[in-house]
Amino acid sequence: MMWRALLLGLALLAACGSAQAGAQREPDLSPAMRAALSGQIAEGLAQTPQFSDPARLVGYLMWVAAESTRLRQRIPNRLVRENLLQTIWYEATRAGLEPALVLGLIQVESGFNKYAISRAGAIGLMQVMPFWTHLLGSGNPEQLLRMRVNLRYGCVILRHYIDQEHGNLFYALGRYNGSRGQSAYPDAVLSARRRWEVPARELQLAGR
């Protein structure tokens, strides 16, 4: 089953040619850090975001509408787009990340192809290396082809690297890609993030 799924991913990758994961290496995690990250991975997967503040709910719905319009050419099915955006919002905010940053990283890493597999073996939307499932999860890399699981891993890993780099996003993105200290990958993700940021005026228009 796993190899059939991986072969499917490789076939789709050959068609899109967009996966960009670099030479990522398995990190040396302390037992405490490994336990903490494993706990974050194991928590329940994304549900519908809940808002006690009506203004935040309206802002979220406007964001989904604006980003769904931008994503239409890449993902024609509206329900698929909105499900992806809902999950990105949930997992990004849960990890203390900007949804626009996660969208930018996905654009650079996989081109929004959830079956993408890089030459280095990284899998899915956020191009997560299989060794992370052995470090933090069930040890089954096939799970990384599931959208929610992939986003959970990707956001937790990126948050870990940001914390490790004391908030330096440039170096954290380099660690995520396996190219720390080189500018090409962080610059590409940060440039893509700017394209996914939604100005207040655009949110107002989306809410009409």
| Residue runs with pLDDT of under 50 for 5 or more positions | 9-18
Count of folded domains: 1
* Strands, count: 0
Percent strand: under 5%
Q: Structural class, from helix and strand content? A: mainly alpha
Task: Return the string of H and E elements.
Answer: HHHHHHHHHH
What does the main sheet amount to?
Answer: none
Q: Tell me the CATH topology.
A: Lysozyme
Q: Quaternary status of these chains?
A: single chain
What sort of overall outline do the alpha carbons produce when their principal axes are compared?
globular
The whole-number mean of residue pLDDT values reads: 88
Number of helices: 10
- Amount of helix: 55-70%
Radius of gyration: 17 Å
Query: In whole angstroms, how far apart are the ends?
Result: 46 Å
Question: Can you tell me about this structure?
Answer:
There is one protein chain. By secondary structure, the chain is mainly alpha-helical. It has one domain: Lysozyme (Orthogonal Bundle). It is 61% helix and 0% strand. It is built from 10 helices and no strands. Helix 4 runs parallel beside helix 7 (147-164) and helix 8 packs across helix 9. The protein starts with a helix and ends with a helix.
